[in-house]
Every structure is written in structure tokens, then in C-alpha cells.
């Protein structure tokens, strides 16, 4: 029922703005009556005529600028442009274009748009703010977001990071053991959010890499970049450092896989807390608790996110999954039934492709588990 209501809200919302407001991220968490105010404040998240996300244009100075759609980027020359580094309740730490860190509050009109008083501003947001001193800033507007990473938390969308180029999916070869199905889920999120995924298999020093080759080959053949690393002995750390330079990267991965260790390795002197993986459950200890943005010396920044233990997909319906999987996608149009879920239907081109190994059996298995999970969730929602 709750899902139906959200769907209706979205339809009305789109109709009102004639498809100009992008589906997804912050806009969905607002009441319908607030949408108009939001559109004034968040300068026009847009989709093109085909429903594709238009990349955000970067505004270099807080002067009045217009993009090709004629949207004003900054209304006031006294405003400072900045990037949100971290959010603590209703206060944010913002790195100004002038290189100074500012503590900022959120203007009331922005605050009142949020149902739960949270999620209005997230790490990575590009904002314009007013400040008398570094301790006393006021965020006046938020730039349109692109590349938003989110997950579901108690049935609600929780935006983890905004304006992201890469989703760095960090896993470990051992301690905790490799979970390819978890990689598959993060890949779906990356596809869904329109963010390029990079798969990292860390702790290479603990294992013989040869048995991993076939699985790595399957991911690579889909066009995904796969990197094996060791924060311990430095394998591929320089490569990772070069890859992330100048990019905005969100970290994803279970607790204990070595996210903080890898960051410390690529950015010496960072000094992020690292803790031993718990012996009893092999799951790490969730050392990292808040999402923060770490500016890199080589340019760009990394969002250090809390370890995500149970990753739930946001708003991906069972019927959408195969289109988000590059290995299944080419076969879908060959199925006899247009609404084929590729589970037990007759004339299923996906199952045929699995049978003669054109689709990797492990990937298909992962797909089936996911679909079963989503179907039971959808059934519960509409019951
Ligand atoms: N052998 C080995 N151990 C590693 C490697 N990378 C990290 N570790 C160890 O794994 C444990 C967890 O590392 P963290 O960097 O804290 O992991 P994390 O993913 O940031 O964990 P959370 O902050 O809980 O999400 C620590 O004991 C690290 O020393 C590696 O490449 N090889
Ligand atoms: Zn099918």
C-alpha cells in the first residue's frame, strides 16, 4: 500500500513538472505540496526528453550563470560556493571554494522540505552559502545532484553521497571471505544510479589468486573494471591512487574488508581508524560510523561510508533487474513473453543462454535469488 502511494505521488509530481524533474534521490522524499518550493531551491534536476539524466554543469564562481536550459545557478554574488564534507544533524561541514572549512546551518525553507528533517543535504552536495565567519555559515541553495548513491533504510531512501563518479565496491578475498553475490548487488546499484562501478578485491596477500581468475574474467567481460589489491603489501595501491585522482568516489563494502586501510594506503597521513576483524563473526566491527568526504591531495575526493552490512536495493522492481545486468540484458528481447522474469517461463532466451554458458551460471543464480527476494517483498507491500 505504502508503495502504491509513493508511485502515485511520483506520477503527479512528474506531470506537474512535465518530466523535467529527475526521478530519484532527494526529490522523492518530499511532500507533494513542497515540490514547488524545492524546485526553486534545488536549481532544476532535469531529465532530457528521453528520460535520461543530464549531467550537472559545474559552476566555477558564485556569480549568476545560466546553463543551456537557462537555469540560474547562483542568485547572489555574496554567496560562497562549496562542497559538503559531512553532515551532523542539521549542521554541515562545508569546504568553501576559498579552501576554508565552514560550519553551516541549513536555511529554514530547505529544512522544512524534509519530512524527517534529514537528508536535505548530504555529503558531496555542491552548495552556495553565506558566512560571516567559518563557524557561522548558512546554506542558501543546493546545486542539482548527479550520481547519487542511496540505499533503503527502514523502507525509506537514504542518500549516502551525491555527485559521485565512481562506486568503489570493495570486497576482500578473505577475512571476511569473498561474496560475489554482494558484488552483484552493488553493481545493480551502480547501474541504477548511473555511477561507474569499480570492483576491488582486497587482501590479496591472504590468498592464492588463481582460483579467482574465472570470476574476475566474468566481471571484466561485462565491461567492469576489477582491481585486486592489498593494503598490507601495497599491491595495486599506486594504480588505485591514480584512478581516483580527480574523481569523486563513493566507497561501498562490508565492514572489515579494508576500506579505511586502502584509503590510508593511497593517502598517507590520512590516519583513518582501522580495527581488527572480529574473530567470532569474521564481519569486522563497523569502525567507520559517519559518511564523510575526504578531499584527496591528488584532486578529487572519497566518500568514506559506514560499512553496509545488509545492502538493500532502493526502488528496483523485480522486472527491472535484468535490464540492469549487462550479461542478461542482450537476451531479454528474445524471450517468448514480454514480461518474462526468466525464472521458470517457457521460451526464455535468458535460460537458454545460461544452459549453453553464454551467461555465467553463478550470475544467473545470483539473479534468481535477488528476484525471489524482490518478489516476496513486492507481494508483502501490495498485500
Ligand atoms: N592481510 C590484510 N589485512 C588487511 C588488508 N586491508 C585491511 N586489512 C585488515 O583488515 C581489518 C579491517 O580493516 P579496515 O580498514 O578497518 O576495514 P573497513 O572496511 O574500513 O571496516 P569498517 O570501517 O568497519 O567498515 C584490519 O585489521 C586491517 O588491518 C589487506 O590488504 N591485507
Ligand atoms: Zn526470459
TrEMBL record:
Binds 1 zinc ion per subunit. The keyword DNA-binding does not apply. PROSITE patterns: ENGC_GTPASE (PS50936), G_CP (PS51721). Residues 152-311 form the CP-type G domain. Keywords: Cytoplasm, GTP-binding, Hydrolase, Metal-binding, Nucleotide-binding, Ribosome biogenesis, RNA-binding, rRNA-binding, Zinc. GTP binds at residues 202-205, 253-261. Residues 162-309 form the EngC GTPase domain. It is found in: Cytoplasm. Residues 46-55 have a biased composition (Basic and acidic residues). It is an enzyme of class 3 (hydrolase). Monomer. Associates with 30S ribosomal subunit, binds 16S rRNA. One of several proteins that assist in the late maturation steps of the functional core of the 30S ribosomal subunit. Helps release RbfA from mature subunits. May play a role in the assembly of ribosomal proteins into the subunit. Circularly permuted GTPase that catalyzes slow GTP hydrolysis, GTPase activity is stimulated by the 30S ribosomal subunit. This is Small ribosomal subunit biogenesis GTPase RsgA. The lineage of its organism: Bacteria, Pseudomonadati, Planctomycetota, Planctomycetia, Pirellulales. The gene is rsgA.
Amino acid at each position: 500500500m505504502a508503495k502504491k502511494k509513493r508511485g502515485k505521488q511520483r506520477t503527479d509530481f512528474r506531470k506537474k513538472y512535465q518530466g523535467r524533474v529527475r526521478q530519484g534521490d532527494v526529490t522523492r522524499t518530499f511532500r507533494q505540496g513542497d515540490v514547488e518550493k524545492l524546485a526553486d531551491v534545488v536549481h532544476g534536476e532535469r531529465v532530457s526528453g528521453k528520460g535520461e539524466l543530464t549531467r550537472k554543469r559545474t559552476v566555477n564562481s558564485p556569480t549568476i550563470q545560466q546553463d543551456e536550459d537557462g537555469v540560474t545557478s547562483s542568485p547572489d554574488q555574496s554567496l560562497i560556493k562549496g562542497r559538503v564534507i559531512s553532515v551532523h544533524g542539521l549542521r554541515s561541514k562545508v569546504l568553501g571554494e576559498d579552501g576554508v572549512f565552514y560550519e553551516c546551518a541549513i536555511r529554514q525553507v530547505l529544512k522544512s522540505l524534509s519530512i524527517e528533517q534529514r537528508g536535505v543535504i548530504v555529503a558531496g552536495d555542491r552548495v552556495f552559502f553565506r558566512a560571516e565567519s567559518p563557524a557561522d555559515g548558512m546554506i542558501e541553495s543546493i546545486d542539482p545532484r548527479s550520481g547519487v548513491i542511496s540505499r533503503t533504510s527502514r523502507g525509506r531512501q537514504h542518500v549516502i553521497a551525491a555527485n559521485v563518479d565512481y562506486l568503489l565496491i570493495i570486497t576482500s578475498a578473505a577475512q571476511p571471505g569473498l561474496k560475489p553475490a554482494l558484488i552483484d548487488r552493488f553493481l545493480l546499484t551502480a547501474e541504477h544510479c548511473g555511477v561507474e562501478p569499480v570492483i576491488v578485491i582486497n587482501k590479496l596477500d591472504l590468498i592464492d589468486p588463481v582460483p579467482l581468475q574465472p570470476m574476475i574474467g566474468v566481471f571484466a567481460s561485462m565491461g567492469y573494471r576489477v582491481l585486486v589489491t592489498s593494503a598490507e603489501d601495497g599491491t595495486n595501491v599506486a594504480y588505485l591512487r591514480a584512478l581516483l585522482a580527480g574523481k569523486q568516489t563513493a566507497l561501498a563494502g562490508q565492514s572489515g574488508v579494508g576500506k579505511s586501510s586502502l584509503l590510508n594506503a593511497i593517502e598517507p597521513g590520512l590516519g583513518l581508524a582501522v580495527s581488527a576483524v572480529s574473530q567470532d563473526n569474521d564481519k569486522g566491527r563497523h569502525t567507520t560510523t559517519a559518511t564523510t568526504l575526504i578531499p584527496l591531495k591528488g584532486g578529487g575526493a572519497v566518500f568514506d561510508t559506514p560499512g553496509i552490512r545488509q545492502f538493500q536495493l532502493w526502488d528496483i522492481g523485480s522486472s527491472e533487474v535484468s535490464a540492469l545486468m549487462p550479461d542478461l540484458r542482450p537476451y531479454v528481447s528474445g524471450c517468448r513473453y514480454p514480461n518474462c522474469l526468466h525464472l521458470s517461463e517457457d521460451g526464455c532466451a535468458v535460460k537458454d543462454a545460461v544452459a549453453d554458458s553464454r551467461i555465467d551460471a553463478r550470475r544467473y543464480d545470483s539473479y534468481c535469488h535477488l528476484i525471489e527476494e524482490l518478489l516476496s517483498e513486492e507481494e508483502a507491500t501490495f498485500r
